[in-house]
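4.2 Preliminary Data

To establish feasibility before requesting continued support, the project team ran the inverse folding procedure on a target of 278 residues. The structure was first converted into the token representation described in Section 3, and no sequence information of any kind was made available to the design step. The complete token record follows.
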């Protein structure tokens, strides 16, 4: 992986089932002395047939952030439906914001653009016709930040990371959305990632399970419908320290068109388990 912002970059898996992600990570997880931002992950075993047992009664904290009002109505509906089903399945779901994290969105952009400018500044200068507008914009913004601004943003990052364990006391995971709405059509633009920026800032282990409610728009193969994903953003200070967190309601093999809030997360790994396509 080529770095963009080493203080924020993370890698992960895409899979049809949450158990597949767990199994894959158990086989290939490792650490490197060359990665100053990595966190060691204790070895663990996942049975290929049995998978990861879900928590019997997960304790979930809903964090919406002030920007919740910008989420598309369908995204909000999917999220509320997922939270309701988790409650019905026995989960303890409590709304509790994190104001300090919610008030420091700019720190992410300061860190990202500063580091991207250092890494890609020369490349953009030598090949302006072969670099994207996004990269050019990031490099330009980064060059405009002072060292004091960058160090201040890094200090905020470390303070919030240190506060994370305390914020998660009494909870197994955070429940939130990964984006303001569904992914856009085509490959030119992958969507607005702003909503997940605070969790990227603190390196919270997370992320996305599809909610699976259809929005009535045409698409290839399904002319009368299209899936709108809702996200579960898991993060933990207890179970996470022992290697894994599993939060699941129902069967992870549920089909699209049903709600299947299913997530598995690992320290420093951003994972995206998806439910199977019908």
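Position-by-position output of the design step:
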């Amino acid at each position: 992986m080529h770095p963009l912002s080493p203080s924020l970059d993370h890698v992960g898996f895409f899979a049809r089932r949450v158990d597949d992600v767990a199994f894959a990570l158990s086989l290939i997880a490792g650490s490197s002395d060359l990665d100053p931002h990595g966190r060691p992950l204790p070895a663990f075993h996942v049975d290929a047939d049995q998978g990861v047992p879900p928590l019997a009664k997960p304790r979930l904290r809903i964090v919406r952030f002030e920007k919740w009002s910008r989420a598309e109505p369908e995204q909000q509906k999917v999220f509320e439906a997922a939270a309701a089903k988790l409650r019905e399945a026995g989960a303890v779901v409590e709304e509790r914001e994190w104001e300090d994290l919610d008030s420091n969105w700019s720190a992410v952009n300061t860190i990202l653009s500063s580091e991207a400018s250092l890494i890609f500044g020369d490349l953009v200068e030598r090949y302006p016709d072969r670099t994207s507008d996004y990269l050019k914009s990031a490099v330009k913004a980064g060059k405009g930040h002072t060292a004091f601004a960058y160090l201040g943003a890094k200090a905020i990052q470390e303070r919030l990371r240190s506060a994370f364990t305390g914020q998660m006391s009494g909870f197994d995971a955070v429940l939130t959305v990964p984006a303001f709405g569904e992914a856009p059509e085509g490959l030119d633009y992958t969507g607005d990632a702003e909503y997940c920026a605070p969790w990227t800032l603190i390196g919270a282990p997370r992320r996305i399970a599809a909610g699976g409610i259809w929005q009535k728009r045409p698409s290839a193969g399904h002319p009368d419908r299209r899936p709108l994903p809702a996200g579960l953003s898991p993060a933990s200070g207890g179970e996470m320290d022992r290697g894994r967190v599993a939060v699941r309601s129902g069967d992870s093999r549920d089909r699209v068109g049903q709600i299947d809030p299913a997530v598995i997360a690992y320290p420093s790994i951003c994972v995206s388990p998806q439910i199977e396509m019908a």
